[in-house]
Design brief:
single chain, alpha+beta, Aminopeptidase, 35% strand
């Protein structure tokens, strides 16, 4: 987990600047957050990102990206992730995207599978120290 902090689980300020990041809260407490992107990058922080990774996608040909979902463990399996995911999907459709793509951790895969995302590729993201983070790339037609 420590090896993934920063490069994989880091802040992507583009999501905030683009206005595509959502936060769920209750009585001032953050329950979860997540967003979508109209940019090339599938995951990771914006530190060291290239111009190509920040390039805009074409909604008529490219899938939008589901990005940076986190739910507080105390609120897991209570609909928070699903609520944020639905808000993302509505916004992507309003932006004329026809499909969505994401890279899920294995703990996130059940959420996306329950929302009709299909696994298309499993692989490890290389981390420092010879470690790897197991992930699954998933897609959905909106």
């Amino acid at each position: 987990m420590d090896a993934a902090l920063g490069p994989i689980f880091g802040v992507d300020r583009e999501l905030i600047r683009d206005g595509t990041y959502f936060v769920a809260e209750h009585n001032g407490e953050i329950l979860g957050c997540g967003g979508w992107s109209r940019r090339q990058s599938l995951f990771g922080s914006d530190a060291g990102r290239t111009a190509d990774q920040s390039a805009l996608l074409d909604p008529m040909h490219d899938p939008a990206r589901i990005r940076a979902f986190f739910v507080h463990p105390q609120w897991a399996r209570q609909g928070v992730g699903r609520l944020i995911l639905r808000a993302c999907e509505l916004a992507m459709a309003q932006a004329q995207f026809k499909s969505a793509e994401l890279v899920a951790t294995l703990t996130g895969e059940p959420l996306y599978a329950a929302a009709s995302y299909t696994a298309v590729q499993r692989y490890d993201i290389p981390l420092e120290g010879g470690l790897g983070l197991a992930v699954v790339r998933m897609v959905k037609t909106l």
